[in-house]
Amino acid sequence: MAATFISLSLAFSTLLRTTATTRPRLAPRPPNLKLPKRLSLYPAAPRLAAVPDGVAIADVVEKDWSFLESTGACLPRALAAGALTPASRVLAVTPTAPFVDALLASSPCELLVAAHESLYVLAGVKEEHDEVRCFHLEGGGGGRGGGVVEAVPERFNDFDAVFVCYFPGMGISAAALLKSLAKRCSKGARVVIFLDQGRQNLEQQRREHPDVVTSDLPSRSALEKAASGNKYILAEFADDSNLYLAVLQFQG
Questions:
Q1: 22 vs 185, which has greater pLDDT?
Q2: Which of 139, 156, 190, 219 could covalently link to 144 via disulfide, CB atoms 3.0 to 4.6 Å apart?
Q3: Where would I find the H helices in the chain?
Q4: Signal among the record's keywords (predicted)?
């Protein structure tokens, strides 16, 4: 019996060794090659770890403002309306990067502050011009940023010129804009509201980008009413197919 047990043990051990040596080996796994990512024409929305309670998703998702990157032939007229000097303190609200380039190239100033709802636009401005102070207008109007400039620290008060580069993207009224800027401007400061494409493309932009174009350009009568209630005078106004330009001077 003992001999039988030993022979069976040897037989099983031999079978096990044979199976182990004759089992086909798996092919080695190929290296994990990372394929290049697809190029995108638009900036990707930033990844959010979490959204705080009471905050709407629309308030934290980056909008696409790239359709405003082009600058028109009327831009020099808008810059000239600011009457800038080397000592000017300037605020640019919702500017494009080309606008900032043109302003600094034609009219050097003591201080330039850029305020925008788009972090992507601000990053592009800061990359090209580190001297520009950039601030994020959170929420898009309604007294929470987007055009009413609470996000800009009060130490940057006493602006001599304010360029409002895309009023239809602010979602506020002309009266609310002028009221908020009255607290930040020096006496005699100029507020220049302009759109170098005029009304020619505004309706098309509204259809194609309803998340950005949330209001209309103010009429002359709306500006005159807003100006009288906030210590401004309407110094210049143009509204045609190629240019919208309103220049208001602060009297406070």
A1: 185
A2: 139
A3: 2-22, 75-81, 97-106, 119-128, 174-182, 202-208, 220-228
A4: yes
> CB of 140 within 8 A of CB of 146?
yes
How many C-beta atoms surround the C-beta of residue 60 within 10 A?
14
Two structure tokens written together for 98: 């080309």
| Contact (CB, 8 A) for 159 and 189 | yes
Dump pLDDT digits (tens) for 107-116: 889 999 999 9
Q: What is the pLDDT averaged over residues 232-238?
A: 96
Q: How far is it, in rounded angstroms, from Cα 103 to Cα 107? A: 6
- pTM (2 decimals)? 0.74
Q: In what order do the strands lie in the sheet with 244-250?
A: 133-136, 111-116, 89-93, 159-164, 185-195, 244-250, 232-239
Please give the Cα distance from 125 to 147 (Å, whole number).
18
45, 47, 73, 92, 181 from 104: Cα distances, Å: 29, 33, 17, 12, 22
Sequence-separated (6 or more) residues with CB below 8 Å from residue 230:
175, 178, 179, 182
Averaged pLDDT for residues 29-57: 43
| Radius of gyration of the chain from its Cα atoms, rounded to whole angstroms | 31
Residues 145-190 have pLDDT tens digits of 445 788 899 899 899 999 999 999 988 899 999 999 998 999 999 9
Which is higher by pLDDT, 195 or 237? 237
CB atoms within 10 A of CB 22: 7
Average pLDDT, the chain: 78
Q: Which domains does the chain have, with CATH numbers?
A: 66-250 (3.40.50.150)
